[in-house]
Amino acid sequence: MRYLHTMVRVSDVEASLRFYCDLLGLEEIRRRDSERGRFTLIFLAAPGQIDSQLELTHNWDPEAYTGGRNFGHLAYAVDDIFAVCERLRDGGVVIHRPPRDGRMAFVRSPDGISVELLQDGEALAPREPWTSMPSTGTW
Amino acid sequence: MRYLHTMVRVSDVEASLRFYCDLLGLEEIRRRDSERGRFTLIFLAAPGQIDSQLELTHNWDPEAYTGGRNFGHLAYAVDDIFAVCERLRDGGVVIHRPPRDGRMAFVRSPDGISVELLQDGEALAPREPWTSMPSTGTW
């Protein structure tokens, strides 16, 4: 067996692509519109990692999405956790769990999907503004 | 950046390992118990696909988990969708969306996480008992 993807539902395609691609760094692999089913599927992946995808399902008929506790989060390793968190914060994303330790951070997608960011390899040396930034909300 | 894992919370480790490993076919990669945090983390992966993991988080203090609509499902390709569904059904798992088309099925974990199974490559020739098995519940 092979892992293919994790699917999350998105209420706003534009806002979701801004979060997952422009700010987080995933790339769009393929897209499918179904007139009959009134949905759009968008498959994303980290650069060069096409076998592990994130599927965004957008139902054309509006629906507000909430989360449940059985799903936890999506986790990605990043090359520079401070740079990614700065880009996300500059883009208006709340850093719920700032990378105070230079190692781990948590943010949420526009539809409340929790995303864990982990520094690839060794933790970075802690530095401001992250060191003194409090956690906020839940993640 | 690299995809690391999708995390789901599990209320019963034994029941979850039976579902994800014994019946579905994932393998345990590593495990970590935290006395201080009162939790156990178990990392699973499809055989030979160690870079795309499923993290099971078990909090020692009992909690009942429900789902939300923002998370959709986990998807895995399988070599023989009929064989996997038969194993799951024999193990007491409800096949919510039977593989009538020889291509796609949906089941749920003990904590309600939806899992999509997709036949790897070409769909298998439809056959009973799957062809006439109705869908049940939601997935």
Comma- or semicolon-separated keywords:
homodimer, 139 residues, alpha/beta, 2,3-Dihydroxybiphenyl 1,2-Dioxygenase, domain 1, 2 domains, 4-stranded mixed sheet, 3-stranded mixed sheet, 7 strands, globular
Written description of the protein model:
- With 139 residues, chain A is an alpha/beta fold.
- The first copy, chain A, has 2 domains: 5-59, 2,3-Dihydroxybiphenyl 1,2-Dioxygenase, domain 1 (Roll); 72-139, 2,3-Dihydroxybiphenyl 1,2-Dioxygenase, domain 1, CATH 3.10.180.10.
- In chain A, 15% of the residues lie in helices and 35% in strands.
- The first copy, chain A, contains 2 helices and 7 strands.
- Chain A has helices spanning 13-23, 81-90; strands spanning 2-9, 27-34, 39-45, 53-59, 71-78, 104-108, 114-119.
- A 4-stranded mixed beta sheet of chain A has the order 1-4-3-2, covered by helices on one side.
- The longest helix of chain A has 11 residues, at 13-23.
- Chain A is globular.
- The mean pLDDT of chain A is 97.
- At the A-B interface, strand 1, strand 4 and strand 5 of A face strand 1, strand 4 and strand 5 of B.
